[in-house]
Recover the amino acids of this structure.
């Protein structure tokens, strides 16, 4: 642990500062001064962000870019010690992806906090909002720095809880309450699979632990961790363990335990990252305030699933089947969401589907990774990095627009370019970035994803990704043209004005990030497996991608810039198909049907009946029996002395009889 | 006939049996009577039987040692004291409740 | 000088009388009659004491028990108006239970002492004067003496008398140290000051 600078030695401060701030703001400051609550909460996250950047600086000074980047555990504490080897520690793991995520989460969270000071101004639950936002930041950081899978799971659930609390922030609105419940239930359902996967990994991990410990522990001792445990990622991703787990001897129903556990873990990741078919909660989660959507449902929480897959990449790679599933589901979600995003009228919904689509990109990038061609890993994390910037920016700018126009519908906006110049400029920057136009950030990350898909010979996925790039450009510029060009479409839009400084400063900072983030040579920082040779821009991919994006922009301009009658005609022509897509393929209705007609009717109701009549009935029966017994015995207590006298004499006689029989 | 004679001649056992019968009758009255004063009378019968028992043993044990008779005297004295207090209580109770039917004195059942 | 046969006959006579009268005491529904039957039982008992050569005790029995206690009981019957009440019929269940308990007791006790051998002789020399002997015993301060119980019994009697007075008196109101007026319910409430008492309430039967 020598050579560690201050930040590395105290890496636990990064999640600890938001936690302390949560407690202090929530318990002490919030009841006293709302304004102070917001300021303290924001300042705490800024401090944490500064610290995270220092941490990144120190880590990469210690392990220069381009060289090997081991995982180090500067702080760890025993938490649940069941048995040696089956102990759950709490700790902080520092390695390239955790550092990357720490920086992203803290910086974006800090900017969102700052923005919220303006956005949530005057709201009744102002203090509550910042308390929960702080708690969320802590949970996300705890997840990101988890050195073992149990701490990750605990923080995973915490993140789900805070997401629930924040989606349902406007709790007086039934739609918000329903949305928060939906989000929580769907992710909880997915987490059931995740938990089973953890249990399988833990079970086999512990049973192999005795043998493998001697081999693996010395190799990871240098990282400064406490004793190796069966839940640690260092153990779970070690090739020896994976080889044992994949062996036919531990197959479950013919499928290797490795594949099954990885598929179950991916189920959890798919729920949290809203992959098809567990995507239904994300569009509804837009009921929460816009800063929440920006932070949680764009930049941080939804990428937790991507992070999980990246963290367990060696395990996924060792099980080729699981990785294939990841790739295909990612690609399917990517396409599916983009198609729907074209038709939505609510600006936040469009952004939500766009998020779904971009996360699909990240997943598919991870899915096409192999240890010998690991470009997808780097590409996925790179896209996570850039996406955080421009998606958060898009949401925050949308928030400013919604604030000004008092409506979410794009058809109530229009002509905002002149009225809200800063918002317009930043929104345009973000839209260009997401469309993948050189030299903004999205161009580089998307290109790397396409390159990785092609490099691993997934031609179908490559084609889908390319197509979706065009669709992304189309639907993003659709809302850009409708909202910012043309004339005002509603009288609110006529009176719109620019947001206050506390709101557009974060927009500017994020816009800056969206522009320059692409120039980071990510492969030097985040890589896995075989080292990558990075030759700069691969024109064979860049040119088709840019052409497709420009085509998308052009199409959007054709339909939506200025006069939108062509768009309306197109919608008419497409008719029923357009309607189906606009209703999100009726998947919500299918879910509702399955839930109500099948699960509730055939499973929940009988179980509830059983619980009410058999279980409760049993308890009631015992109570009733006791009452009956009491009622039966009550006449004995007549209160009359003679009754007691009779009993006394009878009892005494009985005792005497017994004594006499015993002694005679 | 000598056996029957021997059986019938009052000896210790016969006397003791008599005392036991008297005591049992008093016990029956104690458990059965509804009037409180009636119960007290039954108790007097019981006490009398107990005193009789003492005197029996005094006679058949060592009459020179008049222990049994002294005990009987004490029993009589205590019985007197008990009757006094009992009467006082019944009178007060009757003043309070207008009845001394022990079946009505059932507030203990709450 | 009573011959054995006469002694036996007397025993059986007195015994039967005592038992019969005792049964009458516990079963009679009219309490005054029960009191008289009690007196008769105690007299029969005195007779039994004489047969057992406890002459002084027999005298005491008549004087104290019959002359004092039975009189007290008669007073109590009068004061609690129990002479009028004829409702002293216990329920069948109660009778049955009581009967079972007492007969059970009798059977058990009889079984115990009929099968035990008591290490006693039949009599010995009686003391020349049992009165003197009793007197001596009562004031004997040595071991086996009864002077302490004797003193305590006198205290007990004092306490009983005092207690009887305290329990059965009516509580006078604060400004009146002694009570005047009725002791039956339905009459004037003596716990309130004189002026507030309602005029003579009806002295009805309770």
């Amino acid at each position: 642990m020598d050579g560690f600078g201050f930040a590395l030695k105290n890496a636990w401060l990064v999640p600890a500062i938001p936690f302390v701030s949560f407690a202090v703001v929530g318990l002490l400051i919030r009841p006293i001064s709302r304004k102070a609550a917001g300021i303290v909460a924001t300042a705490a996250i800024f401090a944490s962000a500064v610290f995270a950047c220092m941490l990144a600086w120190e880590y990469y000074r210690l392990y220069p870019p381009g060289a090997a980047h081991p995982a180090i555990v500067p702080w760890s504490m025993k938490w649940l010690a069941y048995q040696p080897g089956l102990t759950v520690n709490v700790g902080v793991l520092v390695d390239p992806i955790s550092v990357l995520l720490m920086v992203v989460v803290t910086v974006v969270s800090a900017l969102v906090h700052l923005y919220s000071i303006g956005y949530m101004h005057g709201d009744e639950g102002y203090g509550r909002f910042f308390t929960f936002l702080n708690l969320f930041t802590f949970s996300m950081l705890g997840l990101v720095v988890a050195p073992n899978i149990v701490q990750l799971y605990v923080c995973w659930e915490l993140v789900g809880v805070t997401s629930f609390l924040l989606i349902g922030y406007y709790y007086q609105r039934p739609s918000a309450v329903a949305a928060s419940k939906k989000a929580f239930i769907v992710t909880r359902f997915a987490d059931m699979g995740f938990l089973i996967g953890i249990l399988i990994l833990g079970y086999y991990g512990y049973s192999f632990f005795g043998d493998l410990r001697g081999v693996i522990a010395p190799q990871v001792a240098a990282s400064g961790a406490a004793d190796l445990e069966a839940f640690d990622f260092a153990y779970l991703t070690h090739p020896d363990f994976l080889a044992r787990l994949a062996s036919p001897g531990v197959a479950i129903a013919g499928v290797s335990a490795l594949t099954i556990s990885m598929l179950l873990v991916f189920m959890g990741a798919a729920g949290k990252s809203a992959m098809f078919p567990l995507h239904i909660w994300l569009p509804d989660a837009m009921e929460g305030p816009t800063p929440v959507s920006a932070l949680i449902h764009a930049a941080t929480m939804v990428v937790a699933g991507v992070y999980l897959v990246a963290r367990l990449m060696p395990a996924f790679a060792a099980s080729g089947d699981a990785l294939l599933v990841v790739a295909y589901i990612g690609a399917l979600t990517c396409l599916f969401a983009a198609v729907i995003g074209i038709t939505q009228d609510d600006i936040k919904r469009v952004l939500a589907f766009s998020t779904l689509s971009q996360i699909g990109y990240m997943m598919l990038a991870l899915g096409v990774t192999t240890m010998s061609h690991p470009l997808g890993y780097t590409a996925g994390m790179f896209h996570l990095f850039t996406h955080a910037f421009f998606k958060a920016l898009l949401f925050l700018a949308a928030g400013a627009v919604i604030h000004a126009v008092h409506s979410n519908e794009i058809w109530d906006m229009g002509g905002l370019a002149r009225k809200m110049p800063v918002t317009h400029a930043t929104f345009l920057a973000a839209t260009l970035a997401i469309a993948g136009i050189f030299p903004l950030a999205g161009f580089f990350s998307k290109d790397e994803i396409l390159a990785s898909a092609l490099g691993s010979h997934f031609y179908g996925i490559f084609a889908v990704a390319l197509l979706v790039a065009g669709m992304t450009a189309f639907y993003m510029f659709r809302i850009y043209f409708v909202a910012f060009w043309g004339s005002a479409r509603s009288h609110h839009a006529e009176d719109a004005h620019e947001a206050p400084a506390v709101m557009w400063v974060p927009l500017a900072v994020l816009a800056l990030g969206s522009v320059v983030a692409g120039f980071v040579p990510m492969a030097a920082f985040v890589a896995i497996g075989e080292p990558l040779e990075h030759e700069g821009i691969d024109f064979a991919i860049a040119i088709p991608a840019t052409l497709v994006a420009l085509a998308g922009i052009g199409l959007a301009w054709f339909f939506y810039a200025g006069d939108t009658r062509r768009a309306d005609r197109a919608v008419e022509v497409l008719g029923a198909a357009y309607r189906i897509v606009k209703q999100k393929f009726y998947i919500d209705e299918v879910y509702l049907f399955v839930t109500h007609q099948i699960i509730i009717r055939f499973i929940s109701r009988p179980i509830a009946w059983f619980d009410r009549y058999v279980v409760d009935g049993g308890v009631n029966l015992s109570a009733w029996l006791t009452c009956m017994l009491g009622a039966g015995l009550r006449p004995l207590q007549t209160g009359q002395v003679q009754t007691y006298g009779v009993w006394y004499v009878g009892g005494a006689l009985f005792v005497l009889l017994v004594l006499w029989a015993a002694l005679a | 006939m000598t056996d029957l004679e021997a059986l019938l001649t009052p000896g210790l056992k016969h006397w003791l049996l008599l005392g036991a019968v008297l005591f049992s009758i008093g016990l029956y009255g104690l458990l059965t009577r509804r009037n409180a004063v009636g119960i007290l009378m039954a108790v007097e019968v019981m006490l009398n039987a107990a005193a009789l028992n003492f005197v029996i043993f005094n006679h058949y044990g060592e009459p020179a040692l008049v222990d049994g008779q002294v005990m009987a005297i004490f029993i009589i004295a205590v019985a007197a004291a008990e009757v006094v207090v009992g009467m006082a209580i019944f009178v007060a109770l009757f003043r309070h409740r207008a009845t001394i039917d022990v079946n009505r004195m059932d507030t203990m059942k709450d | 000088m009573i011959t054995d046969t006469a002694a036996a006959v007397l025993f059986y006579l007195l015994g039967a009388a005592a038992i019969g009268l005792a049964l009458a005491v516990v079963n009679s529904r009219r309490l005054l009659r029960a009191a008289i039957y009690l007196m008769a039982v105690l007299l029969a008992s005195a007779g039994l004491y004489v047969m057992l050569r406890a002459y002084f005790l027999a005298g005491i029995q008549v004087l104290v028990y019959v002359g004092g206690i039975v009189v007290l009981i008669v007073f109590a019957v009068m004061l609690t108006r129990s002479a009028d009440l004829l409702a002293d019929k216990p329920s069948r269940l109660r009778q049955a239970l009581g009967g079972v308990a007492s007969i059970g007791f009798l059977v058990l006790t009889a079984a115990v002492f009929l099968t035990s051998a008591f290490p006693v002789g039949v009599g010995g020399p009686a003391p020349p004067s049992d009165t003197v002997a009793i007197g001596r015993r009562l004031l004997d301060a040595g071991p086996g003496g009864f002077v302490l119980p004797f003193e305590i019994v006198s205290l007990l009697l004092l306490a009983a008398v005092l207690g009887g007075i305290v329990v059965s008196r009516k509580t006078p109101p604060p400004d009146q140290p002694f009570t005047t007026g009725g002791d039956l319910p339905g009459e004037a409430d003596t716990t309130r000051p004189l002026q507030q008492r309602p005029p003579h309430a009806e002295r009805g039967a309770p």
Notes: The radius of gyration of chain C is 24 Å. Residues 200-206 of chain C have pLDDT under 50 and may be disordered. Residues 1-80 of chain C form a domain with the Four Helix Bundle (Hemerythrin (Met), subunit A) fold (CATH 1.20.120.1200). The CA atoms of residues 40 and 146 of chain C lie 30 Å apart.
